[in-house]
UniProtKB/TrEMBL annotation:
GO molecular function, one term: metal ion binding
Protein name per its UniProtKB record: Exodeoxyribonuclease III
Lineage: Bacteria, Pseudomonadati, Pseudomonadota, Alphaproteobacteria, Hyphomicrobiales
Positions marked as site (Transition state stabilizer): 149
Keywords attached to this entry: Hydrolase, Magnesium, Manganese, Metal-binding
Length: 257
């Protein structure tokens, strides 16, 4: 099973890019973030014609998450991250696909920090940790996939001081990510590429793509019962260099049956 995550940064604006990548890469399951589309504006017909069923939570202008599958319709188990009934941001959807529970995640950016947006980010990551623990204890194979908006270590960002005040690299955000991963979850990309600088996001400004000035903020975390099934993991970097590209590249893993 090939599972991918892709922050598409406006699904309608970049639909052609998405469809081209789906045809080339042929992932079985895809988690999309930052749809930037209202619920009724998601391009379901085009996705269906590409061979994928889809479930999604849309939101006008910002946010939005979706799970696509070409190996059976995703069975939704949750459309909002538990723990705060007042949170209306479309950042989480969870569905079962062929016996694997997939959580699609678009964590808050948290800027500017310090401030309420950063506080929300940390609270949201703690809610995610609690949900992840619940899912793990259920015993089903689980993949947490998406844009976590955290650079886990200095090794996951190009050598620079220009991001030092950004929420993505703050000690509190990194500590929250470490607490989430803990001793149970496997960071799939880092598991198979422990010594390689791998980036998944390159800001549009200051020629950061051309300079390979990237960050690793898109992650796939595996529950303990999936660790031995991890066969391959990578980033489709070239997608970031195409015309009208998202500022993220797709990240994928392959699991044995």
């Amino acid at each position: 099973m090939k599972i991918a995550t892709f922050n598409i940064n406006n699904v309608n604006k970049r639909l052609a890019n998405l469809l081209e990548w789906l045809e080339e890469s042929e992932p079985d399951v895809v988690c999309l973030q930052e749809l930037k589309a209202a619920q009724n504006a998601f391009p379901e017909d085009a996705i269906n014609q590409a061979g994928y069923d889809a479930v999604w939570v849309g939101q006008k202008t910002w946010n939005g998450v979706a799970i696509l599958s070409r190996i059976g319709e995703p069975l939704v188990t949750c459309r909002q991250l538990p723990g705060d009934s007042t949170d209306t941001q479309a950042r989480y959807i969870e569905a079962a696909v062929q016996g694997v529970l997939i959580a699609c995640i678009y964590a808050p950016n948290g800027n500017p920090q310090p401030g309420p947006k950063f506080d929300y980010k940390l609270q949201w990551l703690e809610r995610l940790r609690k949900r992840a623990t619940e899912l793990r204890k259920m015993g089903a194979p689980v993949v947490l996939a998406g844009d976590f908006n955290v650079v886990p270590t200095e090794f996951d960002i190009y050598p620079t001081k220009s991001w030092d005040k950004d929420a993505l690299v703050q000690p509190e955000a990194r500590a929250a990510f470490r607490k989430l991963v803990g001793r149970s979850w496997t960071d799939a990309l880092r598991e198979l590429h422990p010594d390689e600088r791998i980036y998944t996001f390159w800001h549009y400004m200051r020629n950061r793509w051309e300079r390979d000035a990237g960050l690793r903020i898109d992650h796939l975390l595996l529950s303990p019962n999936l660790r031995d099934r991890l066969m391959a993991a990578g980033v489709d970097r070239e997608v970031r260099g195409r015309e009208n590209a998202s500022d993220h590249a797709p990240v994928w893993i392959e699991l044995s049956e």
